[in-house]
Write a structure and sequence with these properties.
This protein is mostly beta strands. It has a single domain (about 1-205), classed as Beta Barrel (Porin), CATH 2.40.160.40. The protein contains 1 helix and 13 strands. Strand 5 (about 45-55) and strand 6 form a beta hairpin. The chain starts with a strand and ends with a helix.
Length: about 210
């Protein structure tokens, strides 16, 4: 379970992501913003349902390669969402070099038009993370979307954040991102948490009777 908050001038939201590892290399994902406020308008945001499939596990010089698919549903109120169905596909590349961790994500996003059809953009992100102490770490990211349509130009942000492992199952994070260009607030503060609710498979294995 991952929940976070964004705070900026004229913009605040609460965003959530629930993940369930159904198999060793496959997880199901449900994303939703239960609260969003833009320019004084408050309501819900769109929801996303999808999966992440690890195709290749990191080995030697080969990075971990995963496929992420998300279908978005127009659940937003007060005109805060797209008002149409859409979906996105991303390729995720992750590689560890000792304590240095790198991620590269790339893929198209298809956004529904009010009168039918789909607009398309491309999402790209480059991120790096490294521990500072046993519990404290930091991460930096450069991310952005290409132009979607005449009303939604390209955007790019630079993010920096600290993470703190309060417990093995609970990680806190806080940071900010600065908009380099695009129709977004100039600076956005963020904080949130990641919590591992339970290892259901381990619990099931403990209860399983011996043969």
């Amino acid at each position: 379970m991952e929940y976070g908050f964004e705070l900026a001038d004229g913009h605040q939201n609460m965003n959530g992501l629930l993940k369930f590892g159904i198999f060793k290399n496959l997880e199901l994902r449900l994303a939703n913003n239960p609260f969003e406020r833009d320019s004084g308008v408050t309501g819900l945001s769109d929801s996303g349902l999808g999966f992440k499939w690890r195709v290749v596990r990191q080995k030697g010089n080969v990075p971990t390669i995963s496929l992420l698919y998300t279908a978005s549903a127009p659940t937003a109120t007060q005109g805060l969402g797209t008002g149409e169905f859409g979906h996105s596909i991303q390729l995720l590349f992750s590689k560890d070099f000792g304590k240095h961790h790198f991620d590269v994500n790339e893929g198209p996003q298809f956004v529904g038009r009010p009168r039918g059809g789909l607009d398309r953009n491309y999402f790209t992100s480059l991120s790096y993370s490294h521990p500072i102490t046993e519990k404290l770490g930091w991460t930096g990211e450069l991310a952005g979307f290409s132009k979607t349509n005449a009303n939604t130009p390209a955007s790019m942000v630079i993010l920096g954040a600290l993470t703190y492992t309060l417990r093995p199952r609970l990680v806190l994070d806080a940071g900010a991102f600065v908009t380099v260009y695009g129709n977004q607030p100039r600076m956005v503060g963020l904080f949130g948490f990641t919590y591992a609710i339970s290892d259901l498979y381990h619990f099931h294995a403990q209860r399983r009777p011996a043969n």
